[in-house]
Short-chain dehydrogenase/reductase SDR (Ruminiclostridium papyrosolvens DSM 2782), 259 residues
Amino acid sequence: MANTFDLTGKVAVVTGASSGIGTDAAFAYAHAGADVAILARRAEKLKDVKEKIEKETGRKVVAVSCDVTQEENVKSAVDTVLKEFGHIDILLNNAGIAVQGGVDSMSVEAWNQSFDTNVKSIFLMSKYIIPQMKEQGYGKVVNIASVNAIVADKFDTFIRHSYNSSKSAVLGLTKGMAASYARYGITVNAIGPALFESEMTSDTLFKSNEFLVKYNTLNPSGRPGNKGELNGTILYLSSDASSYVQGQFIVVDGGGSIV
């Protein structure tokens, strides 16, 4: 039986690739045989990631500085990737932000920032990549949502209403895209991670011993996710192993959403 997880000959685009889940996913794609385009705003960090992936895997990596909330940035970035590789097979929409605050306290600017980064970026990346996927009759789109798309935060001192609602919007967008583009050989699915250490969480959640004790107590696995533990799900939804999986939401949370 052929290895349905093999990505040899594929090109993957990863947003938010300068750190955390995005960097891990880019390495995973390259190890699976794909060439990779990594996108983020921070050019120097991208350069470092590019060099490490190429040295470790031997795959070709293109680093493109891009603000995925800005249409012209996205259009230019996609044009660059297509010029370098000729085609795009996989899009991992990973860029995201978690703004704290409830609707009674947060600013409109903070609310809009959440939706621009978490939802608008998926719209823009898909807007410029889906047409090429339709033309080639193949594509895998994976959207990183959050377990907090379906469950609220469990701590009174930790409220993120714009995060909850924007990540829920990702699920609606995922289903709509999946239904519309399945006929073109494109699958669209979403992943809902719980707490994983990243640049976004290390300076806040992982520095709070009180928070981690509560989190570990409430999670059946008794711990946050470890580095790389999302990669299996990402590779599954990005490969032909999931060829008949469409519009689904896979939660990777150690069981936190079942209790």
